[in-house]
């Protein structure tokens, strides 16, 4: 029997922030002249960069926009963040929450014709545990057993109710067993998703409808063409000119898109803009310096000037309305205090401030944010030098810890909020090169991972966020993101991906 206790991680967030006036919600879809749709139409979607890799072991945090096209996970999520059946139709947790048994969907084929079954699930999970970016995520997975072709049992070393959410993300992706060891998997994915890769070029990746998909009747288009456009302004111009059918945009571009007659969808999500600092750097190892950074930022000014008010000012990773959010930290006004920042620097032995290099990716919006932060930090004596890196260089720098600080878009909710804590706030975390750690956090993290019921997980998670905040966080939040996308008239059906789960199969294009 499927456990129904897992609550929506994103629907509550979207509703809560919409009520708070942060611009959440979805615009009414526009229809084409006739209302008839073309099931063979190719959606042209403008993207800021190519996928890092289609191999889940090597993919970057922002790659799901590509992965979700060709792959499916054991558990699925709606665009609003609600857990639902995926490649598994049912699941059951043992009484001690250390064993999850999945009933698998039958009649599913991979793009190469292989059968989806328990052996395929076992092969993928065991491969992910051996090497790559998912090793730490699946560290507590002790054993995978194919009980029968349609049933698989996962045994964990500790209570792991949180893994239901994790297996709705990249760790739950099932790759065709025959493709798992293919060195070209990064550019030649083989999954069970509604589309399959048809071409991978330097600045464009294309997909065609998978006619053997188990739910093929739901697929509303014949394929996708995802082409790279250098920045946000260029992507929006591509939609205006007809070169593209849709793209993600910044909140500041909404008026321009609406004036051009486009459909806008938007909702707050679990991503946030932040400064990630490397606590291995001598000055940044001092909690007082990190707290000085926290107090030096005028978040409300940045939200209004750069994001039309649609990036919610924040000093914590989780937005108001999300179950891990700390209500006492939602009012950011007390945490903009330049004089306090100067005092903290002086107490840290830096009365004349410090020099800090901040790396930033090539996208215009991050460069603009870095420049705004540079001007604000300068006022308290933190002299920032901005270094722009290429997209892949930025990913490599963050993964290897070869940076002092970066301005970045971080995902706090996917695959599960506790994974964010593990990666950024615990020793050995994937994005914690300085080994930041606090007494009590590992124990609280274990408590937050026991259950699959969010109401039972919120107290230890909130205690972790509060502890880290008070100690000077290694991740300095700026604002919680609102996802915004624009489509030309006649393109309908997509919902804002609150937790980064993209459903392009639901899109329809009117004739």
What does this structure look like?
By secondary structure, the chain is an alpha+beta fold. The chain has 14 helices and 20 strands. The strands form four sheets. Strands 1, 2, 9, 10, 11, 12, 13, 14, 15, 16, 17 and 18 form a twelve-stranded mixed β-sheet that branches. The protein has a four-stranded antiparallel β-sheet with strand order 5-6-8-7, covered by helices on one side. A two-stranded antiparallel ribbon has the order 3-4. Strand 5 (88-93) and strand 6 form a beta hairpin. Residues 1-12 and 14-33 have low confidence and may be disordered.
How would the blueprint of this fold be written?
Elements: H1 11-19, E1 25-26, E2 42-47, H2 64-70, E3 75-77, E4 83-85, E5 88-93, E6 99-104, H3 118-130, E7 141-148, E8 151-156, H4 163-166, E9 195-200, E10 204-209, E11 223-228, H5 232-241, E12 246-249, H6 254-259, E13 263-277, H7 287-296, H8 299-307, E14 312-313, H9 338-347, E15 354-360, H10 364-378, E16 382-388, H11 391-400, E17 405-411, H12 417-425, H13 441-450, H14 454-471, E18 475-487, E19 491-492, E20 508-509
Parallel strand pairs: 2-11, 2-12, 15-16, 15-17
Antiparallel strand pairs: 1-13, 3-4, 5-6, 6-8, 7-8, 9-10, 10-11, 12-18, 13-17, 13-18, 14-18, 19-20
Helix pairs in contact: 7-9, 12-13, 13-14
């Amino acid at each position: 029997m499927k456990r129904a206790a897992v609550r929506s991680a994103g629907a509550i967030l979207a509703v809560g922030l919409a009520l708070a006036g942060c611009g959440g919600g979805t615009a009414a879809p526009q229809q084409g002249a006739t209302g008839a749709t073309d099931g063979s139409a190719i959606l042209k979607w403008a993207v800021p960069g190519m996928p890092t890799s289609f191999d889940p072991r090597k993919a970057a945090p922002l790659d799901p926009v590509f992965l979700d096209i060709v792959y499916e996970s054991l558990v699925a999520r709606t665009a609003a963040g609600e857990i639902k059946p995926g490649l598994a139709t049912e699941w059951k947790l043992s009484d001690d929450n250390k064993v999850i048994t999945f009933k698998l969907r039958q009649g599913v084929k991979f793009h190469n014709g292989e059968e989806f079954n328990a052996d395929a699930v076992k092969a993928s999970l065991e491969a992910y545990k051996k090497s790559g970016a998912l090793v730490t995520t699946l560290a507590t997975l002790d054993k995978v057993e194919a009980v029968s072709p349609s049933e698989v049992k996962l045994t964990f070393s500790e209570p792991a109710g949180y893994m239901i959410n994790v297996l709705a993300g990249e760790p739950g992706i099932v790759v065709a067993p025959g493709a798992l060891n293919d060195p070209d998997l990064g550019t030649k994915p083989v999954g069970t998703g509604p589309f399959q890769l048809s071409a991978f070029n330097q600045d464009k990746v294309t997909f065609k409808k998978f006619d053997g998909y188990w739910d093929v009747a739901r697929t509303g288009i014949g394929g996708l063409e995802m082409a790279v456009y250098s920045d946000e302004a260029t992507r929006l111009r591509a939609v205006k000119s007809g070169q593209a059918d849709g793209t993600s945009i910044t909140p500041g571009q909404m008026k321009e898109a609406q004036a051009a007659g486009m459909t806008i969808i938007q909702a707050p999500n679990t991503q946030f803009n932040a400064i990630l600092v490397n606590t291995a750097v001598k000055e940044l190892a001092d909690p007082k310096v990190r707290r000085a950074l926290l107090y030096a930022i005028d978040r409300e000014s940045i939200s209004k000037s750069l994001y039309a008010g649609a990036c919610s000012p924040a000093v914590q990773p989780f937005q108001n309305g999300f179950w891990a959010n700390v209500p006492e930290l939602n009012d950011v006004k007390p945490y903009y205090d330049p004089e306090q920042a100067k005092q903290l620097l002086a107490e840290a032995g830096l009365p004349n401030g410090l020099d800090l290099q901040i790396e930033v990716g090539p996208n215009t919006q991050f460069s603009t944010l870095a420049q705004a932060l540079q001007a604000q930090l300068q006022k308290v004596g933190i002299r920032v030098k901005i270094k722009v890196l290429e997209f892949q260089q930025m990913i490599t720098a963050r993964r290897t810890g070869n940076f002092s600080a970066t301005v970045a878009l971080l995902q706090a909710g996917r695959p599960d909020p506790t994974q964010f804590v593990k990666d950024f706030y615990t020793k050995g975390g994937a994005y914690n090169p300085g080994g930041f750690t606090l007494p009590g956090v590992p124990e609280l993290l274990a408590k937050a991972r026991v259950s699959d019921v969010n109401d039972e997980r919120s107290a230890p998670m909130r205690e972790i966020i509060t502890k880290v905040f008070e100690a000077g966080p290694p991740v300095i939040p700026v604002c919680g993101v609102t996802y915004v996308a624009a489509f030309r008239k006649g393109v309908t059906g997509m919902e804002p991906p609150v937790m980064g789960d993209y459903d392009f199969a639901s899109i329809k294009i009117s004739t």
